């Protein structure tokens, strides 16, 4: 970067010498009021010169690009040529103080009150309509569950039913779809069980699918405007949007209930807003300036709320903004105070707004989903208790304070869900590695609810295993024993190496706690949050550590599994490192022992029954905290070796697609695969950009300036936005451990697509401008036309596969099959080439 | 112990020489010398300080170097590797060979005979010549300090900065501990620092390009680079660093329009030869030596292909005396033919519940083991005894056979159940009793590229075993089974018959009734061996994943010195690897300070604020030195975040070296800048006072924590006067 900056700097110096005279000339005119276009352009030049001149003062400062005052206005419609920029309020007013400048500008041309000016961007609208038509056409085909609709449809259904679910991605996208489903009157009763299941007529498939289709269509004008905003021609902008519209992968991704369309729209729209901000460089704190900043923050925040990977788009946006800010630092007309103000405003808007959006989506999420559902088990007891009919069913009318004689189940609070467990089996006398064990009854951590998870809390000095009158509540620091409910053996630990973690002590249930042995079965109760419960041990709420009295070690879930003899349940040990998460437990189910008779007691335990009840309240913040923790640190089961999984490297060449849906009774299928021509051209554009950049850089270092300063700056800006955008959306996947699919590539692909369009324009500029070969340029344009035609032809055939496959006539099906086969062959052929 | 700072010791020496003169005179002389030191002007002072630093280094490193007299931590591995080089026994390790080879060479030169088994940490070295190896490793480790001194001197031309930086490395307890034993780390650190030293010295020669000294440093750098890569693959980071350094200097040469392009080309070529070609050649040479020295069969054989093994003396394939052809009734081992494939293996454990049918597990296993033996049977008859006079029947291409696991008597079996890891393949189990199974035990043997009816041959034939009923092929890859499968590799039945992982070859073939023949002709050449070693190494490296439930060290814990590592936990001599917290935490503070200063300077520059020339020059030199050091630190630290492999605390030490040097440079810069910021009457005393404070803090902290490195005789917590509580500043420190 430094080297590049130096290069630009040098060029600036050269330029400044040439234009020094002009600058002096221009300064005299500063006070003059100028309206005409010519005068404006002179001023503009002068303004540029001022910047450049300042740079020649010391060799250090290196403004990368002049602020984009010269950027063409997007107000011009598709028919107008980009070379005639219309001037409106965004034209620069060279004043000593930019704030003043803004105000004088206002004073000069006061907007008539109540005037509404309506400008339509025909190109954007055309692109949107074209895209929307392709996306919604035959939207309800196929009438079956397509790929990840399985998940997102199911989540929408769960929203309808207010049932809690756990997903490791944030909820905004799912909420949008659920909203559409709600408006269409979906009741959520449909079971999304596997891909391909036909939809019930009651499921509003079209309504749900129209959400991604809508956002996916809005994406196209956004792309167009971003290109234009970066100083590229309207044709290049239209070309990029065109490529995106006619790419099969984009189409498939925004036709079904999937997140990518929404994700990409929010991301790119946020970037567009940030780029627009450059336009209002001289009118800071004006209304449009604030609009851009705030809408950008909202949009990028929403992007993160659709999928965590959106954080990279957000970072890219912040990066672009930081870069623009850095240029402002170089502008000495802006005082330090103003700089500080700018910094604060931007930082504040870009921290507060995304965080607010993020939290509010979760607020909606958690307030909507108040009923217990299928994957509650992941959450802690306290969380489950806050759900209606969840754990509340178990702990409903259970007593709160743990006393002598309480029957409890002890849950491992953090990490893996399991309960302290014992059963009628002993540790083997000798382990495989020759070590001996205590040969006492096994104590394990068991991941399922089981009658053997019940333990009775006992004070060492009271014999009867029944709740006494008056009750003996257990306080923080009390000494207790834990007696296993069904086998009546006490939890003990001793100086024997544990089965799988030999550096820890073994925990066992001792055969007969009545025999006078040295008390190894005494445990001290250490509450982690005694202040909530006045120091008493409460069920569910209290987090507790059990410290073995003799050895001062804590009861711990070791995370390892026992071998066959331990039924592959998890090992329980004591560990001398007390302060760790795996030593934290809490009482989940709890009731008082009523009968001292052993038989009666066992019967009672075996009869344990669940009754639904009202939910317990947990504050939003503690719920959010827990959910966040689980989402970010819970390693979900990896679907290793999925049939359609692919590697990041395969994406560049489109090595394989994903079969999204396969018809049960014909050969019809929806196959997610990109348009091979665009795909490979995009990769080519990426390589050629990198190559050209290096060539230009090498030439510039030897003082050969092939491109004009403006063209060079434009070329750099393209790389800064699209090249870096591609990189930040692509390379992180190399570090991801999860199973990856082709659709993860889509955001990166979008940037590649834009780069491709920009490179097409750059090629034309080179031919027409640098080589001065208008004829060659014409031929080049012809080539581009042929290339576009080939793209269209590819799109058409694949489109047939996707959309027309559902014809009921058998003959048509066969025809489709032929098309599909042909296409597959074509693709493999392309890959071979 | 280290009582004196270099500065003071020198001052003291001066004092004694001028003891006859008056008090005033003495003070003047000390002041003079001190000013010379501060302004880095005089040659003798430079040498004096440098030698003092070297002397202190030697004193701290070699003090008690022979203690403890037992195996410490990973000495159990690297000592063993050294023995194997001396005994010329082949082994497998995930690191390249140079470091271990050097350890072997050190041992050989100092009279170690390679007989000590190095079984586990804590084994006493009774009558073993281990000291030579330790001393050699420590010597390499001790070089770090003078290297740092010279590097910082060259980067900043400031004697105080060089002294500060080298003393931060000198007084770090962690580095002291890590470089005192028979480990790869002292060697690796030596080469890394050597590479940076070379690069810096080479850069300093830029005023006389293509001079012999210039060439000398270029070759030196190349040599050091090859050494760091050939010791551990993390050495690649320093290669990257030196590469960036070189590109930057070439870019400068190229941008100077007075240099013709041909000259730039020459510069480029010279560097390509010295920094790319030379290290690559040296790397291959080290491997050549490695493969030549290790010519006897050892415990690493099983990781390599049958052809590779046939080169190892004592291996069953060496001068093999085995039947060339496969007969029914032969006992064989089957090796997966892909590079790094294991042996088809079974053991008396069942697949757990929920994982296919509860039948006996079949895996591949890289070690040679009794459980790898399989008996070849006809699909419909049991074989006779070898003593029988039945005519020997040979197995031909396309025959139907069964394979019986010799120790357990179960047949190789497959059925339509999902495989445990690769769910879309079919499960392979061991089924039946004493060789009696069912029809799902039948396999068809196919010789790849073989004629019909061609007899199956040992080693050279690549075989495919196709399940007769299901039509899938026996396959293995390097996906590991979970804990219940002892993390051995999964074996499946692959519906895609033509997968390259489906190929197997027969390695051992026991059948007394057939004549034995030799396998000498299949010997691979050096290049093949070289490539195969690498495939196996990378596979081994990627297999070093943290096991389920195991706590691994996290990169964020390292710079904050969160948790150390026990080196020796034997009562009476405990050694605990832990950085000097003053230095480590100080490094972090300075790093933050650097970022702040850097941003501030960049801001000033962007705003166009100009300074006087001298200040600017000094600032620029410091900033560029710091920039390179921070880059080196980041290159040696940040990539660990992206690594999936198991990580250890000691991986941070290369980065620490750069971080410490950065601290030296920055502190010197701040100390020099401070006098101009304080009132006039304080200005002259601020510098010496702060320098004194710095060194005394450093030395006191070293004194406090030195017992961790030199053995905690008195630190048993049960002792009355134990100092362990005083210095256990964090609860996570385990001593």
From TrEMBL, chain A:
Start-end of Basic and acidic residues biased regions: 18-57
Cellular compartment(s): Endoplasmic reticulum membrane
Entry keyword annotation includes Signal: no
Class of the enzyme per the UniProt entry, highest EC level: transferase
Pathway membership, UniProt: Protein modification; protein glycosylation
Membrane-spanning segments: 232-250, 256-275, 287-302, 347-370, 676-698, 718-736
GO MF term (any one): dolichyl-phosphate-mannose-protein mannosyltransferase activity
PROSITE patterns assigned to the protein according to its UniProt record, in alphabetical order: MIR
Membrane topology qualifier: Multi-pass membrane protein
Signal peptide: none
Keywords: Endoplasmic reticulum, Glycosyltransferase, Membrane, Repeat, Transferase, Transmembrane, Transmembrane helix
EC number from the UniProt entry: 2.4.1.109
Catalytic activity: a di-trans,poly-cis-dolichyl beta-D-mannosyl phosphate + L-seryl-[protein] = 3-O-(alpha-D-mannosyl)-L-seryl-[protein] + a di-trans,poly-cis-dolichyl phosphate + H(+); a di-trans,poly-cis-dolichyl beta-D-mannosyl phosphate + L-threonyl-[protein] = 3-O-(alpha-D-mannosyl)-L-threonyl-[protein] + a di-trans,poly-cis-dolichyl phosphate + H(+)
Designated name of the protein: Protein O-mannosyltransferase 1
Organism field: Petrolisthes cinctipes
TrEMBL record, chain B:
Reactions accelerated catalytically: a di-trans,poly-cis-dolichyl beta-D-mannosyl phosphate + L-threonyl-[protein] = 3-O-(alpha-D-mannosyl)-L-threonyl-[protein] + a di-trans,poly-cis-dolichyl phosphate + H(+); a di-trans,poly-cis-dolichyl beta-D-mannosyl phosphate + L-seryl-[protein] = 3-O-(alpha-D-mannosyl)-L-seryl-[protein] + a di-trans,poly-cis-dolichyl phosphate + H(+)
MIR domain ranges (all copies): 323-379, 392-448, 453-509
CDD domains reported for this sequence: beta-trefoil_MIR_POMT2
UniProt EC number: 2.4.1.109
GO molecular function: dolichyl-phosphate-mannose-protein mannosyltransferase activity
SMART domains per the UniProt record, alphabetical: MIR (SM00472)
Keywords, in A-Z order: Endoplasmic reticulum, Glycosyltransferase, Membrane, Repeat, Transferase, Transmembrane, Transmembrane helix
Listed pathway(s): Protein modification; protein glycosylation
A Gene Ontology cellular-component term: endoplasmic reticulum membrane
Function: Rt/POMT1 and tw/POMT2 function as a protein O-mannosyltransferase in association with each other to generate and maintain normal muscle development.
Subunit structure: Interacts with Rt/POMT1.
Record protein name field: Protein O-mannosyl-transferase 2
